[in-house]
Amino acid sequence: MSKKIAILGSTGSIGISALKVVKKLSPSFQVVGLTAYRNAKELAQQVRAFRPKMAAILDWKFFPELKALTQGTSTQILAGAEGLVAVAGESGADMVLSAIVGAAGLKPTLTAIEKGKDIALANKETLVMAGDVVVKAAKRSGSRILPVDSEHCAVFQCLNGSSPQDVHKILLTASGGPFRNLDRRRFSGITRAQALKHPTWRMGPKITIDSATLMNKGLEVIEAHYLFKVPYPKIDIVIHPESIVHSMVEFVDGSVLAQLGTTDMQIPIQYALTYPKRAASPVKRLDMARVGSLRFEEPDHRKFPCVRLAYEAGRKGGTYPAVLNAANEVAVRRFLEGRIKFTQIPAIIEKTLSRYRALTNGNLDGILWADRWARAHASNL
Ligand code: NAD
Ligand code: MG
Question: pTM of the prediction?
């Protein structure tokens, strides 16, 4: 019997890679749901190629176009936030790949979790914002959360079921981004085009900017905390410019395990899909003799204050990570629009966090309130 999968954010970088994986694994996998933000053309092509039960576009403006382009298929076409939630919960999926970017992924992902569906999680912002809520909901419903983020997929493979007590440290690797060697005094002149040039990975624009500020690694620290139930002092970051070692786990006995591979997201996506099994894949092989040597170094916290901000928000817990995430989303969007400098990204996040007074607890309503507050506050800044 084939496994039924819904892909939220199917027109993005992860979504497109996931469809490649599914195609290669067919007929073991069958796509039953697809969603996108505004790209009706790409979504319609995907609908024609994969014939899902349901497809949804967030922005109602593009609903008529999607309807027209999918005429003659039996796919049910939906729109709006409710449409996305319906695909997550009602498309008959056994597994939902959560690959929307940003806080917009939270509601549909949580819906799928509450329905007990397994989640292949790329949308780290969901776990950063609402880690406790998401983990509790998954425990209640029996939903399994399988990491797609390459570092967390690596840690997951290294842990291989070990208990959190066996872990001395989780070592998340980071490429260091395009500005690893740039002098700190030149950071305020960094342009959008320079920041969008990631040295090792090809990804969507938001995560590419997050990688340039190293906020991506900060978000991943919080993601690791919730996924693996490991306290923050046991999660470290190490800069590894080659992006070959995707992360490591140091155990209490002194053993360190690492997972290695080429920089192709099809590998972690496929592992989440086929877990606990592995399937042959035609991805490019890692040639260690050609790689030659691997480097590791400490992150420079003066150049990349986002790392510290993420640890601080993570340790405070409650609604602080949601504030961190929302302020970051606003600042990154403004930077991409050319309205603020690169160095203003951490400055806006820091100011927003320092003015935040957590009056609400960490339940879903409190998180959504904190998210709205932080967006408004960061926008004003
Ligand atoms: P992307 O920008 O390429 O794609 C985002 C997808 O989400 C698109 O399908 C888009 O239509 C949809 N989307 C965007 N805004 C939306 C909204 N407001 N409501 C509904 N749908 C919306 O992003 P990506 O690089 O594929 O990243 C997706 C997620 O995966 C992010 O959380 C990112 O951090 C994570 N991730 C990505 C990579 C990577 O290699 N790209 C690696 C690790 C983790
Ligand atoms: Mg990652």
Answer: 0.98
